[in-house]
Amino acid sequence: MTTATQNTPETTVHSVIATVKGLVSVMSREIELLRAMKIKEMSQLQEQKLVLVNAYEQGSSQLKKDPSFMQHLDPLLKEELRDVIQLLNTTVSENETALLAAKTSNERLMQAVVEAVQEQKVKSSTSYSQAGVLAAQKAQSTQTTAPMHLNQCL
Question: Is this structure's pTM higher than 0.90?
Answer without folding.
Answer: no
